[in-house]
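Encode chain A's predicted structure.
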Amino acid sequence: MTDRREFWSKARKEEIARMCRDQGLRQAEPEVRRTTQPVTDLCSAPGGGRDRQLLRGQAFTVHALSETGWAFGETVADGYSGWIEASMLVPHFDAVPTHRVANARTYAKAASGLKTPGDITPLSMGSELVVLDEQDGWSRIEWTDGLQPRRRFVPSLHLVPIDRKEPDAVAVAARLLGTPYLWGGNSAFGIDCSGLVQIACRACGIACPGDSDQQMAQLGETLDPGTPPQRGDLMFWKGHVGWVSGSDTLLHANAHAMAVTYEPLQDAIERIAAQGDPVLRHARVTTP
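Encoded structure for chain A:
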């Protein structure tokens, strides 16, 4: 049976037709839409549990729609299949994102300038924005909530061109130190272990799937047991992954601390082994 996380990339036509029939879905011509909220849950079923999340401006291909207002499709970035409330998506239009948020967190506000009042919308690292122009340190961005375009401004220092590749994934992940642990989280407001790996990989131009088991199967070069760890390596356990930030330090989002934290590497290995989970893979990831 097709892994539900890879349904739209792997399912056969007969399986798709049966699923749409059984669930009463209207299959549509694939349409790329973008998210409008700071964070949007990608769910396992309509109204179901959170699998992953998309950030403001990230792209989602809609393949089918339910009568209850849910869109079934897949993320453009990594082909992760799931359900999103259709009201959280807007048509792709012609303007594609030009910049992404590089700070851990920033905001979009209704007026430029340090002291001007106005509505504030928080934005996470990795959010994708269309910058229209820039003046006096503020970037004017295209902003719509599906109703009508409005003006919004973001501090230019918090943005980088969307195609800029960062050189150090661990440095990117470290910007999220202290972020609360959230199962299935992908943002600076809540993140899990695989989300921390993915957000850093993407900033460095490294293709990366969404969940830790997928990352264990796809990322990096497997190293022999006993290979000295170095910065940028990944350590995998059953259901968990973390960045090696130094020869003796792990950087990971973990439920033990309920946050993104540093932990002595050997302490983490021993603590997790005591729960019955030894290290399954030590991988070396090379930045393009």
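The two ends are 34 Å apart (CA to CA).
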